Amino acid sequence: MSDTPTPLQAPDLSAATLTTPTQQSDRIELISRARSFLTSPNIRDQNILSKRSFLSEKGLTAPEIEALLRELPLQLPLVPPRTYPQPAPSNLPNLLIGLARIFTWITGTSAALLFIYYRFILPRITRTYEARHMLIKHQSSLLSRFTDSLRTLKDTQESSYVELPRKSHPAEDSRYAQHHTLEALLAAIGDGDPESIPDETLLRCALEELTEPKDSGAVSTEKLFHHFEAKVLWLQGEDGAQRQGKLWYTLNTNPVFTSSPPPPPSPPSSSSSSAPKPLPSELLWKYNPPQSNIAPLLPALSKLKTSLQSRSTIPSVASAATQNALQTLSDFTGYITTQTYSLNLPIRGGFGMSTSVGLGAEEDELRREIRALKGLVLNRRSFLGPGIGDSFPTLEKIS
Description:
mainly alpha; Arc Repressor Mutant, subunit A; 3-stranded antiparallel β-sheet; 16 helices; 3 strands; about 60% helix; elongated; disordered N terminus; PEX14; protein transport; WH-like_DNA-bd_sf; translocation; transmembrane helix
């Protein structure tokens, strides 16, 4: 089928229906109008079914509609319209509203929490912190006062006990004190256990045996332990090494053994630096017998005894004045009591009750004063010691 439409033959389309020339011309005009309708740009791309239904409504028959549709050029694929559908509404406002609500909730909650914290919690924390701070400060002040008291007590003790003897070194066992050489010491032990000998005794005997006047009485560490290995055989081996360690510890910690550096080989020059620290094997050791600390104590004890005797002979001024006052009051009370009861006693009434008939105002006043003075003396007597109160006469004895 060619692209150019061929005109329809009137006799072919309406051979059976058209009978008059007028009807034939109307039919041809209707077909031409339908053809121009179908070729219009607005209708060309419409659906075929809608075209058929529209032409049939206008009075065209099915063969005429088919002929008109075949005359139309081939339809190209439908191009999608350039007007795209309207996009969905944006969710940004809703998102912003949600964020604003969340921010409002967070702000309100934070404000409420801050109010609760600063109104109720923070004051309690502050009071607790201040209480702890004050407690720590009080404890620090007490500790500082206690430290000052201890320092003062220590200074007082040092100044007061300066003449007292120091702690004396424990005396050496009398079984070993009489020996001055290792040979004599080992011979005295005999078949006994040689390891029972104290370390101090071994060191003393070795130092006394090796002491020479030309060396100012000092022995080097190396020479001392070589002498031990030569004289005492059980100091060799592993057990002997342990015992030598104990001897070295005793040599450094016991106050009766003193060390000194070896003398320099030549006088040091002014430009040379300080002498290096001597090695432990080069130290010189010396034995210093412990001194007795009893002699410095005797003058202090004599001075204390004299002071106590002088204080015991001097009577106390306050105690003497108190005794004189109590003696005077006791004598005066006894005198007043004697004078009072020497008067005529009043007639006793019935039921054992005394009456004041026959007594004047002066006698009543005197009796009241005597009772007050008696109570005062009894009260003063109750506060005295057992030794003082028994030495004075009481009112019962006087009366």
